[in-house]
Write a structure and sequence with these properties.
By secondary structure, the protein is α+β, with helices and mostly antiparallel strands. The chain is built from 17 helices and 17 strands. Strands 1, 5, 6, 7, 8, 9, 10, 11 and 12 form a 9-stranded mixed β-sheet that branches. A 5-stranded mixed β-sheet has the order 14-13-15-16-17, with helices on both faces. The longest helix is centred in the middle third of the chain and has 23 residues. The structure holds histidyl-adenosine monophosphate (HAM). The site of histidyl-adenosine monophosphate (HAM) has 24 residues, from strand 7, strand 11, strand 12 and helix 13.
């Protein structure tokens, strides 16, 4: 009895329709990246396991597909992991050649990534992820400009896919600012990791569960007020959030620094043409799970909130150094193909002709008793770079074969029929324009010249 197999859960088979969709997404990502001056890079699909342990964060490390190499002659093995994301590879590549690379470094990549996540809507175990990263920037202004440049590029690409500015929203935050809030709320530094992780989930946790967590983790007065107000959508960049008038001078100063920094970023987004592409707003609950982010962090989602984040990114100024390179500030984002394709499909934004292949320039209708003449003509036309199709059916019924020609969306049909082909002075053929239905009978060499001229 035959054994049947299915693809592992969380992976996809790419039949022609799905493959065409994937190529459409990748081609769009690539085109927009190149248009904004980014160069394509790639790395291995697996890396040493330790690369991800340095700074990707516990969540990603718990989702790694990892394996041991075979023993070498001395019985030693090495531990590897399939890449769950591209940023550690990029940091490793930049660190290795940082001094030789022209600045700023503007790179994009389209890696296939693997995460042993529980499969759910928008999340798979294997997916494609567009990464765009920009490294360099000697001044705070240059860095804010880079942050805005990559975020606007991401929004520009969503526009290119047909999503209108009112359909997508960029929500951003700054980890430095968050630390100032923790400080203003008197949360001791030792509790910041727990506070970050709580903030990341705060709007998804019920009021009762929040109370339980406060008690379990020892978050009191100021900390509880901070979390409750953020859960309630209050804006910590507004003075009333902190009862500004009651703050001491040192705290007033800290609050003002945060506001100025936030405004600077927003201003840069506006300079870069934000209104053309989408909306943006600060969101104090965006902190992102990856441990390497050092400042500005953001996510883009659909404004109706029906999907998970389409893209996410931020600034990671310490990672290159951590991988043995020079001090090199960096900012970037990743966008997966799964949520994006779901969204485009649902909104009817995918091109209608995906999966149909390239429309032929010419369709050979062969009603001659033998295949050789048609085979020769196909070879000659393909050598002249025309897209040529034919029917592989044995029927000599020209009407039926012309139906196949029309179904193929070919521009022309070249009809080889015995009545003309064997005429004295022949061979003659018919050349039919399938759009206008205009048909001409002419000597074969003339028909071939006319077709090749249209290539
Ligand atoms: P991330 O938020 O982990 O960031 O992933 C970015 C995007 O990848 C997500 O918004 C989502 O579209 C997609 N994605 C992530 N996991 C899955 C999954 N299991 N299935 C389908 N899609 C998924 C990063 O990976 C950062 N390395 C991005 C970055 C680049 N930051 C700076 N440069």
């Amino acid at each position: 009895m035959a054994t049947t197999f299915q693809a592992p859960p969380g992976t996809r088979d790419f039949y022609p329709d799905q493959m065409a969709l994937r190529r459409y997404v990748e081609d769009t990502w690539r085109r927009v990246s190149l248009r904004h001056g980014f160069l394509e890079v790639d790395g291995p699909t697996f890396e040493f396991l330790d690369l991800y342990k340095v700074k990707s964060g516990d969540e990603i490390v718990s989702q790694l597909f990892h394996f041991e190499s075979r023993e070498d002659k001395s019985g030693n093995t090495e531990a590897f992991a399939l890449r769950p994301e591209f940023t550690p590879t990029l940091a490793r590549m930049v660190a290795a050649k940082a001094h030789a690379l022209p600045r700023p470094i503007k790179w994009f990549s389209l890696p296939r990534c693997y995460r042993a996540e529980r499969q759910q809507k928008g999340r798979l175990k294997e997916f494609f992820q567009w990464n765009v990263d920009m490294l360099g920037g000697d001044t705070p202004e240059a860095r804010a400009q880079f942050d805005a440049e990559v975020a606007i590029l991401c929004l520009d690409c969503l526009r290119e896919f047909g999503l209108s500015p009112d359909e997508v929203k960029l929500r951003w935050n700054d980890r430095h600012n968050v630390e100032t809030w923790f400080d203003l709320a008197d949360i001791p530094e030792a509790k910041w990791p727990a506070a970050y992780s709580l903030l990341d989930r705060i709007r998804k946790i019920s009021p009762d569960d929040r109370k339980r967590i406060y008690t379990e983790q020892g978050f009191e007065g100021g900390a509880q007020r901070l979390f409750e107000q953020i859960a309630d959508n209050s804006n910590p960049l507004a003075p009333e959030f902190w009862k500004y008038d009651q703050l001491d001078d040192a705290k007033k100063q800290k609050f003002q620094t945060v506001v100025v920094k936030a405004m600077t970023f927003h201003t840069y987004l506006r300079f870069a043409g934000l209104e053309r592409y989408g909306q943006a707003e600060p969101d104090p609950s965006i902190v992102r799970g990856l441990a390497y982010y050092t400042g500005f962090v953001w996510e883009i989602s659909d404004t109706r909130g029906e999907h998970r984040a389409i893209a996410g990114g931020g600034r990671y100024d310490k990672l290159i150094e951590m991988f043995g390179g020079p001090t090199l500030p960096a900012t970037g984002f990743g966008m997966g193909d799964v949520v994006l394709a779901n969204l485009l499909q649902e909104r009817g934004l995918l091109p209608k002709d995906l999966g149909r292949g390239t429309a032929p320039d010419v369709f050979i209708v062969n009603a001659l008793p033998r295949p050789e003449p048609a085979l020769k003509l196909i070879g000659e036309l393909r050598a002249a770079k025309l897209v040529v199709a034919t029917s592989y059916k044995t029927t000599k019924n020209i009407g039926k074969l012309l139906q196949d020609a029309a179904a193929s969306s070919a521009r022309h049909a070249l009809i080889l029929a015995p009545a003309e082909w064997y005429k004295p002075g022949g061979p003659l053929v018919k050349l039919k324009n399938l759009a206008t239905r205009e048909e001409r009978e002419l000597p074969l060499p003339e028909a071939m010249t006319a077709l090749k001229a249209r290539a």
